[in-house]
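Quick one, tokens below. Sequence please?
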């Protein structure tokens, strides 16, 4: 009896708490999204595949982007034709004899672009027509001025000797002045038309700059058509196949990081009292019974600072915790078996070592409390 009492006071037994959870990667799961709306043209992976970072996952055929790119390129070609025509007008300085021939209009299926092209051609033709009209008027007025100058020179000797009335001679000079004024007005109008052509050219060039910037951004977006793995990991939860219509930012699949697995466990309120980071633990995996495959040693790595409310998976308040694992495999004889993310586990967390005698005293204490309540 004395030996038993000595053993009860000296021998110690581990006090453990068993908690449930699942294996998960140490890093966060990565969601892979579609870069744009479109149709999935090819899927390179299946659920469970292991992939390396930058490996192709799927292709998205962004038809809207391709159509927009084609429309931009056609518009650029049309605007460059307009630039060439306007440059020809400005370089000619308004002289129709130096106008370059108008380029042929390309055939375009898009009705809106065809209308824009026709409008631009009409504007250019109007500028050229006004300049031709002004040039013809200038030519006519200059010829008239030469004729009037000849007449004035012829009648000047008569005026000088008094053979012609002074008013008649002054009237001739006034007629010449009127024609010169008309010529000046026509030259000013020509400069005004050339100024309008220059302003139109600047506007077209700005459009080209904006379209080029949009095209660069569009090409960059289209280059993302083949979506690649952002990390090394395992593919799961694929929600697409070939010909699936997708929207921008839609989650296509997820990647489990190729990191060590750890046990994510839930600790109830009644078990949290003596919990602290660093406590040793042993973990058993439901898929590999501990009686055959043994336990995996681990350690309580992190502990939630506050309880989380109940949800569908947790009927009571709980504290989230993480248990690290010393190994990533279990062994069946000489054959190693890999652990996988999502496997359910039980973790026995060692809280403290207690003398065996305390178990007996605890039993008597509970019985005594029961008697007190009974009274």
């Amino acid at each position: 009896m004395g030996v038993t009492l000595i053993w009860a006071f000296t021998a110690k037994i581990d006090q453990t708490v068993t908690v449930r959870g699942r294996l998960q990667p140490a890093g966060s799961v990565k969601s892979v999204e579609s870069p744009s709306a479109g149709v999935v043209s090819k899927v390179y992976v299946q659920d469970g595949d292991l992939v390396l970072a930058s490996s192709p996952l799927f292709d998205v055929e962004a038809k809207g982007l391709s159509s927009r790119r084609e429309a931009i390129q056609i518009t650029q070609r049309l605007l460059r034709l307009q630039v060439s025509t306007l440059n020809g007008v400005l370089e000619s300085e308004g002289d129709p004899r130096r106008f370059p021939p108008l380029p042929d209009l390309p055939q375009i299926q898009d009705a809106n672009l065809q209308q824009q092209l026709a409008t631009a051609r009409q504007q250019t033709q109007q500028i050229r027509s006004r300049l031709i009209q002004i040039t013809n008027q200038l030519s006519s007025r200059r010829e008239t001025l030469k004729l009037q100058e000849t007449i004035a020179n012829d009648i000047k000797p008569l005026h000088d000797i008094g053979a012609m009335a002074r008013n008649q001679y002054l009237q001739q000079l006034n007629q010449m002045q009127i024609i010169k004024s008309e010529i000046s007005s026509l030259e000013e109008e020509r400069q005004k038309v050339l100024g309008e052509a220059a302003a139109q050219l600047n506007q077209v060039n700005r459009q080209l700059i904006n379209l080029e910037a949009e095209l660069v951004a569009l090409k960059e977006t289209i280059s993302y058509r083949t979506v690649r793995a952002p990390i090394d990991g395992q593919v799961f939860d694929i929600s697409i196949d070939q010909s699936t219509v997708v929207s921008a930012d839609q989650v296509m699949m997820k990647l489990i990081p190729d990191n060590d697995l750890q046990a994510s466990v839930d600790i109830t309120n009644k078990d949290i009292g003596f919990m602290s980071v660093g406590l040793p633990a042993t973990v058993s995996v439901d898929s590999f019974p501990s009686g055959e495959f043994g336990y995996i040693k681990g350690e309580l790595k992190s502990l939630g600072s506050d309880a989380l409310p109940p949800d569908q998976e947790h009927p009571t308040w709980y504290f989230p915790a993480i248990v690290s694992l010393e190994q990533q495999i279990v062994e069946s004889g000489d054959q190693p078996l890999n652990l996988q993310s999502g496997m359910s586990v039980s973790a026995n967390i060692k809280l403290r070592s207690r003398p065996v005698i305390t178990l007996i005293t605890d039993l008597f204490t509970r019985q005594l409390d029961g008697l007190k309540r009974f009274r």
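The longest strand covers residues 12-25. The domain at 30-62+225-255 is CATH 2.40.50.100 (OB fold (Dihydrolipoamide Acetyltransferase, E2P)).
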